[in-house]
Amino acid sequence: MKTLISVEQQAIAAKKAAKTLSLLSETDKNDALNTLADYIEKNVERIIEANEEDLQKGKEKGYDEAYMDRLALSESRVFALAKGLRDVAELEDPTGDILSEWTLENGLQVQQVRVPLGVIGMIYEARPNVTADAAGLALKSGNAIVLKGGSSSISSNRAIVEVLHEALRKTKIPAEAVQFIDSTDRAAAQQLFTMKEHIDVLIPRGGAKLISAVVSNATVPVLETGTGNCHIYVDEEADVEKALNIIVNAKTDRPAVCNAAETVILHENWLKKHSSALAESFAAHSITVHGDEKAAVYLPDVIPANEQDWSDEFLSLDIAVKVVCTLKEALEHIERYGTKHSEAIITENKRTAMQFMALADAAALYHNASTRFTDGSALGFGAEIGISTQKLHARGPMGLPALTTVKYLMHGTGQIR
Amino acid sequence: MKTLISVEQQAIAAKKAAKTLSLLSETDKNDALNTLADYIEKNVERIIEANEEDLQKGKEKGYDEAYMDRLALSESRVFALAKGLRDVAELEDPTGDILSEWTLENGLQVQQVRVPLGVIGMIYEARPNVTADAAGLALKSGNAIVLKGGSSSISSNRAIVEVLHEALRKTKIPAEAVQFIDSTDRAAAQQLFTMKEHIDVLIPRGGAKLISAVVSNATVPVLETGTGNCHIYVDEEADVEKALNIIVNAKTDRPAVCNAAETVILHENWLKKHSSALAESFAAHSITVHGDEKAAVYLPDVIPANEQDWSDEFLSLDIAVKVVCTLKEALEHIERYGTKHSEAIITENKRTAMQFMALADAAALYHNASTRFTDGSALGFGAEIGISTQKLHARGPMGLPALTTVKYLMHGTGQIR
What we know:
- 2 copies of one chain form a homodimer.
- By secondary structure, chain A is an alpha/beta fold.
- Chain A has 2 domains: about 1-225 and about 390-410, Aldehyde Dehydrogenase, Chain A, domain 1, CATH 3.40.605.10; about 230-375, Aldehyde Dehydrogenase, Chain A, domain 2 (3-Layer(aba) Sandwich), CATH 3.40.309.
- The first copy, chain A, is about 45% helix and about 20% strand.
- Chain A has 15 helices and 16 strands.
- Chain A has helices at about 1-20, 25-40, 45-60, 65-70, 75-90, 130-140, 155-170, 185-195, 210-215, 240-250, 270-285, 295-300, 305-310, 325-335, 350-360, and strands at about 100-105, 110-115, 120-125, 145-150, 180, 200-205, 230-235, 260-265, 290, 300-305, 320-325, 340-345, 365-370, 385-390, 395-400, 405-415.
- In chain A, strands 10-9-11-8-7-12-13 form a 7-stranded parallel beta sheet, with helices on both faces.
- Chain A is globular.
- Chain A starts with a helix and ends with a strand.
- The mean pLDDT of chain A is about 95.
- Chains A and B meet through helix 10, helix 15, strand 13 and strand 16 of A and helix 10, helix 15, strand 13 and strand 16 of B.
- Strand 16 (about 405-415) of chain A pairs parallel with strand 13 of chain B, so a sheet runs across the interface.
- Chains A, B: Its main location: cytoplasm.
- Chains A, B: Its EC number is 1.2.1.41.
């Protein structure tokens, strides 16, 4: 019970701090972000020591290599956190922007102005870098943040927040604008789900299970960042070199990220002609194929694909291969299994490409390019708080504007209706 | 069970129709909307007859006058439905707009394009006009819609949808793009709450109870249209004439709507000077005052205000009156009881007004004007699907752009990362 009461108190403190923060100038916020970066740099050892505690516990628990890698903070990774904060200071502050303004016939002046959301609840898993990254983006956009990280990285997160708090006390941003839920209790996170009075938005970042738990149980609005079950559709009229390059890049460049490709959908007429080149490419890059019956006709070493292969992310050098006879079939497969993240078509036929891009329902649609570009830094947003796979508020990589809302400000001289 | 299965089938049919609809030109959509208007006009009698069934049942159930008025469709009201559809045809189609475009260094062309949301689930109460209004706005913005109206207006809603379907069959929009859940079963509405596969957004319109049921139980994202517990803060430096005019207008012009004022917060120094003028205004407009202890010191006939008087909408000629000594106290009261809809300050001090507008958290903030302007048609949006009191996606009166999302379209020549 003690934890639960304190989570609410923390949220209330965050809300109060958000008011002060929302009135600060861009210069004050940038100065504060640079001070945070200074303190992170001065405390590299302290953060790494705390991280070693997490790594030790992780080893004892037998986490796999990929998980341990996400958990680990090297010296260069800590310096990257500081660099990230300085980069956010350089980004344009979206708040205060007047998005539109007009005057009614009666003289009432109407302005639509961008303002901070208020308090962001961030619920995340292993990566401790999210602690500093999310705090930086929240503060720059004038928001307070309540951080609830994964229990496996709690020592690292605690150390980072301690350093941020020490730094904030030297700035105009109240230290209470960054709240850290220092608990491994799931009930603590769950209390955030329904705290509509104090929290304006929840952003879950992590696996499908975490995100679905938040979406199903939250009454606070959620910015859903999602898993990417991304498809590449190779049309009958696809250029073979482009197709092979893009498939290999989208699958192997960083297999564990959300914009990696998980399924290739091949037009049968294309596959007939290019099966040996495709098979060579797969073999040369150690890609394991899980395919349907037709794929097994044209390609060697095909493991029969099951329902899970079509619907889940492999996040490894495995790929699912489906063979179709029409664009319609390809779109139906994407409709059924896609997660609305990123979908690509490879074709030299512009009309087919336009149809695909109009009818496939996802944040990002690619014609003759790798799905790997769905990423805030690749697209030039500077930094991202996550990639939205939902349709409301923000879709695709979310930069600072996704952390804002609007207000209508009406200036009158006594107007009545 | 039969109903439940058919609701899902209706949602699937809507999703399919949405694809066809999303490819239509603006002219095709406008032609269709004008055809819908023609058919509504040709079928006035049929719609009014169906409405009489609802009114008869409503009378038997003993609904109050205000409710019966919301339910009733006169000839002029039906013609207004047709006019509404023609007005929507005149509005600019937001879909297809390129919101931004740029080219990456590697030559990849990036476009952020506005597209329809897909399928809208509309859950509403007594007013049968919502059936035609919501369908018109959805279709114009390229969306299919699943309508679930209140059981008290089911005959009217059914007749309107029958007419819309007959009309749609003469247009390029598939009739399946408008789905009507012909059931008074609550489970039918509830099934929409979690149909994430087929429904892209839920818009509840009605009382606080309906909206809270949707928000609490839906996993489909919700556009929350809200109740308005709107406050008018009369500052120490308020002009007496402006203050009285605005209070009377915001309270009495249409007491039952969400942008009507429910509470006046008075600075004690102002009240001291102007208590008799205020009391006269209240009396002249038959306004009943529910006040705190201080209000009772300065004003006659004050009913002691209870917690509910502060927190709920009266939707009548009742008003709550709170007396404060500072702006801070006023803001705290609004923070505690406000519904983030519309809040006003009356003052001749610009600095105080700016502070109020920066710190009060609501969709619309007014300086020296009535809260009654928070309305799509008053602000010149042409039509609105509701007034959002949430902060994500859309805030304040929601016109056609609120029914859209974006897609990133990436045009490449083989780019990989």
